[in-house]
Design brief:
Helices cover about 35% and strands about 15% of the residues. It is an alpha+beta fold and about 675 residues long. The chain has a seven-stranded mixed beta sheet. The longest helix is centred in the N-terminal third of the chain and has 22 residues.
Amino acid sequence: MAQNIAILGGGAGALAAACFLSAKPDWRERYAITVYQQGWRLGGKGASGRNAQLGQRIEEHGLHIWFGCYANAFALIRAVYAELERPAGAPLARWDQAFRPHDYVALAEAVDGGWRPWHLVLPHRPGEPGTGLDPVTPWQLALAAIEWLPRWHSELRAAAPGQLAPDVDASIAALVAQARALPADAHAHGDAGRRALRQALERVQQRVQPCAFTGVVGDDGLRRALIALNVATTILRGMLADGIFTRGFDAVNGEDFRAWLLRHGGDQALCVNAAPVLGLYSLLFAFADGDPARPGVEAGTALRVMLRMSFAYRGSVMYRMQAGMGDAVFAPMYELLARRGVRFAFFHRVEEIVPDGAGVASIRMTAQADVPGGDYRPLVDVQGLPCWPNRPDYGQLDPTQAALLQAHGVDLESWWSDWPALFRARTGKDLPEKTLLRGRDFDHVISGLPVDALALAAPALLDVSLPLRATVATLRTTATQACQVWLNHDTRALGWTHAPGGQEPILTTFEKPYDTWAGMTQVLATEAWPPEIAPASVQYFCGPMPQAGLPPRSDTGFPARAAARAHDDGVALLRDRLQALWPAAVGGFPWHWLVDPDNAEGPARFDRQYWRANIDPAERYVLSVPGSTARRLVTDGTGLKNLYLAGDWLKTGLDCGCVEAAVMGGMQAARAISGYPETILGDNDGM
């Protein structure tokens, strides 16, 4: 008899679990899978929606870029597209039409009170993403960094002709040779090998002393070459000194990354506070409560992420989606799972998870909306591409409920939604509830709820699971914010003229709160604007949002206040700061550049752009604060026999917030229940 599996939440981790559980031909004989999702769409923090009133434009939670080292996420999405078998002429028919390689990254350097762009074009590596992961051990990654030192040194020599010690070339060549001669297994290096490596590193550092150069701040090429060498050699020396090659990255997770660099002799300007290091903090939203003055990320996790992104990718360092993440990732996953026979119960909000001595005994849910026609069909067609709308299809809902939802602009995805009170005031009744019971409705539960949402929905679990209680007490999350602007100027006309290979920029380390920017004009081809107002470009921004704690659920005005802040921050970005990146806007931002069907004047045109505050417990970004990985759980780590966790907040071996970690968490859950998949690439340091 098939076992019933209830999956709570439809984020990447939960859907990955469903994909692997339903992958074998005989899965229906073993499992009956139901995904319970609040609201009308899947995707969690990666969900996107189409705005039918404004050119079917894509509205995202933020800026979503996949890295070429996301071996598991890419393997999954490749398999989804292959099995889906969209017609050859259909939009995004194959995975490599949905994802395009991207090699160009820019960093905004703060120099002499201004901003200077640092353009980086990363080399293409052999292979394709999703076909494996290499290298993965700390030593393999360190060796890859050592083999890059000659390249960085050649850039330094070109920037400072005649200023380097005459034997620098020989010292770097000796270091590379020494490293290559060591065994692949770091445990076999021995004291003599480690001592020789340390001495070779010290000789290189002694011969490339920043104090030997003048004009470092003013000369971009010289400064950046010194930064590359200083960051690399500091990391290598620290990994060697702290035994990371044999102990693994987690050995130094009790310390903040920048403090760790400083302890190992990193120069303040050329390492600790250098743009590549600051960029990692921006990438990981590594600011307590979103406060830029309180940065923090554990050193081991930071090292692992930085080195894997830099040296373990296949193909290109990054891949851009050619539509919204909901369109390119979650719509295909939904279509495939529905075709396989996985059931989806939309408009089901988890209110309480109740344990007993044998595990999870019951799950209480609110039925947010009635679908008289039966199963809700969530996708809409936009120029032949199945997409998620930015609001429910009210035509499929009970007419009375639909009218009330629309009249009050109810957000069914918000923790602070006033929908229950509105429904009660209109009908005199509470929204209907559904209670799932163990043995009748489920045998196993996979919780895809993020850590904050799980803690709020299941306080009783914390009472009976000491490990889960410790995790909730240790992990920290932060709110983020995002905005998108559609312009009648292309990116070059904005004044940003650097476009290697025709690629638009992906830039970070700019001024907060919107410290990360990407030109995302490639997605316009899948939108449906009237020709007379069709944008020439679309630009995405994101960053941390300062917000300490969560107000009570009764504070239904909190989302509007947070959204207003994201809006005002977006206006201030365009008005006051963006001229550093878009020189054509010097002298005051030309508001008429913004595409606005209402043709408003001045900053009011921003009101037809898109912004959001990611404040919901299910949307907040999970931080990797010092010491937190030790408290992360694996999927079955709660001690409750029939409860499995999924998501990027688990102990996955990557241990940071990203779609790769979420997929790895879902794979853990599927493996714990079914034994498949046997392997999760990169789930440890490979030692």
